């Protein structure tokens, strides 16, 4: 199954999620990421964080949802709507869920405080992705309603 992690800029959260998911996912599950208005570059702190975690960073780039290599089966939006950020709506026949995460690209303060914002976003996404991958994926592939319920629950449980 193809999972799309979607946000507006596709420079931080969706890239972190894509790389982490692909690093942990079983065979047959693949993540991609995109933005409705991509920035055109991956934030250097995202790449540095992934490298520190031992997650390969080759081939990840900021891209538009108009340029997806595959049609997604699942779309996970990761923007933080509560922060006044508008989440893009993917217009396709897919399972949709929302896992809001604050955008570390907007963090301010010292280098340590900004790095902490990136680390926090990564930890939230990784926890949710691990919970996703712990689901009975073989069973859920054929039960989209149950898969959506489980994905929504994961987004609610791990703020």
UniProtKB/TrEMBL annotation:
GO terms for biological process: response to arsenic-containing substance. Residues 1-135 form the Phosphotyrosine protein phosphatase I domain. Pfam families: LMWPc (PF01451). Keywords: Arsenical resistance. SUPFAM superfamilies: Phosphotyrosine protein phosphatases I (SSF52788). PANTHER family: ARSENATE REDUCTASE. This is Low molecular weight phosphatase family protein. It comes from Pollutimonas subterranea.
């Amino acid at each position: 199954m193809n999972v799309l992690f979607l946000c507006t800029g596709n420079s931080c959260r969706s890239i972190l999620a894509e790389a982490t998911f692909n690093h942990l996912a079983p065979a047959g599950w693949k993540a991609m990421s995109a933005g409705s208005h991509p920035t055109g570059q991956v934030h250097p702190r995202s790449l540095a964080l992934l490298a520190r975690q031992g997650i390969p960073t080759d081939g990840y780039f900021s891209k538009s949802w108009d340029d997806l290599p595959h049609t997604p089966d699942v779309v996970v939006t990761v923007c933080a709507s509560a922060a006044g950020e508008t989440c893009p709506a993917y217009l396709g026949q897919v399972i949709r869920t929302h896992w809001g995460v604050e955008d570390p690209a907007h963090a301010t303060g010292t280098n340590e405080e900004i790095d902490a914002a990136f680390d926090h976003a990564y930890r939230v996404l990784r926890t949710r992705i691990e919970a996703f991958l712990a689901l009975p994926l073989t069973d859920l592939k054929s039960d989209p309603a149950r898969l959506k319920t489980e994905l929504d629950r994961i987004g609610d449980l791990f703020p």
